[in-house]
Amino acid sequence: MQILFIHQNFPGQFKHLAPALAAGGHEVAALTLRVKEARKWNGVSLLPYAVNRDPGQALHPWLVDFNTKVTRAESCYHAACALRDQGFTPDVIIAHPGWGESLFLRDVWPDARIGIYCELYYRPDYPHTGFDPEFDGPPDPTNALRLRMKNLNNHMHFAIADAGLSPTRFQADTFPAAFRDRITVGFDGIDTARLVPDDTASLSFKSGLTLSRRDEVITFVNRNLEPYRGYHVFMRALPRLLRERPRAHVLIVGGDEVSYGARPPRGKTWKQIFIDEVRSQIPDDDWARVRFLGRIPYDRFVTLLQLSRVHVYLTYPFVLSWSLFETMSVEGAIVASATAPVKELITHDETGRLVDFFDGDAIVDEVSMLLDDPGMRERLGKAARHHVVRNYDLETICLPRQVQWVRDLAAMTPRTPGL
To answer: CB-based contacts of 218: which residues, under 8 Å, 6+ apart?
Structure first.
């Protein structure tokens, strides 16, 4: 088959699926903003396209997001037309629709089967909205209207998509029932053969310090340090945690930008805001045991997870981080928020310990308990790895399931969208 992927930051969630399809003998291409010149990557033809914007256009604030998506969709449409005119006629198109790029591809290839990656549908009800009043502000009756406009992109994709793929049931269930029946739940996959426990793991730092499994290491990981991933809750728990664990080293991974949710006040970062909030409560000697590592190379990240004694993971009711699955794969002992997506993966006292997202004291209590109980850490860690290997392994579970989803998609009759 000829298979076309659409993702502004390709490969994104398709980093395993696309090369696997290419290795299976299919002609695989991807339209993306990530490259400036056409090239090959793991058997996939990467094809660039450029976004053309009109900087002078004025819009209602609720339409800014959709305008960006339509702008990208039009640019992708022209790139797709050029690809079609060169003779490329995909049997299957697999797109992450979140940035709107795939909106008009049915107009270019009406006979292609289109599958979309269903990451999240915006919901105005609790806990999807209003989960954290500190950052949501006072109730706003127009919020539901704004989210309805934000979902325009999703609804236009429902009309053209033959099938959807969601990584977790929580994410799939955010979508309306009318489209939910077309969604298959299939996680991206974890390389459990690489992500294994390692009692010899150690990390060295420029200060001369080296940490290993012999040390009391607590880890906290976000792509970016922000409220959506509970950074504020963890930081507010830090003064007590450091007092009660005088030998602990706290390693915090994450960037200074914003991936999700509200932006901080202009000129500030969430990272620094919450450092400033708690720093006066922490003596200098204790603060010296806290290290902000920023974003680190993947090999170093894996080592960090392998040497961690307790890993703390917090999230709003939202998409799960790969880091949670990866920590489980290396037999990490985890304290995590008892929010809906986490509870889909972790069962309390079987594969981890669950606490209320907002309860900093409970986080400290659970972390301290695990640090004092190596038998419990080992029991939870081994059960966590067993669960991930059995249900989320890349090679034996997830990739075969995704490839089968592509085959099933290819066998469908293409939808005829309404006007």
So the answer is: 241, 245, 248, 249, 250, 251, 308, 309, 310, 311, 312, 367, 371
The residue to which tokens 């209003």 are assigned = 130
Helices (H), 192-297: 231-244, 270-278, 284-287
Is the whole model's pTM more than 0.90, yes or no?
A: yes
Taken in order of first residue, the domains within the chain and their CATH numbers are 2-188+396-411 (3.40.50.2000), 202-392 (3.40.50.2000)
**Are 112 and 121 in contact, with CB atoms under 8 Å apart?**
no
Q: Tens of pLDDT along 371-386?
A: 999 999 999 999 999 9
- The angle that helices 231-244 and 360-371 make with each other, rounded to 10 degrees, is 50
Q: Look up residue 221 and give its two tokens.
A: 């990981």
Q: To which residue do tokens 């696997």 refer?
A: 20
Quick check: 125 and 147 in contact, CB under 8 A?
no
Rounded CA separation 274/269 (Å): 9
How many residues are present in the chain? 419
Report the C-alpha gap between 317 and 248 in whole angstroms.
29
Backbone torsion region of residue 349, taken as left when φ is above 0, otherwise alpha when ψ lies between -120 and 50, otherwise beta: left
Tens of pLDDT, residues 222-237: 999 999 999 999 999 9
Strand partners, 203: 211
Cβ-contact 75, 52 below 8 angstroms: yes
What DSSP letter does each residue of 126-170 carry, written as one string? TTTSSS-HHHH-S--TTHHHHHHHHTHHHHHHHHH-SEEEESSHH
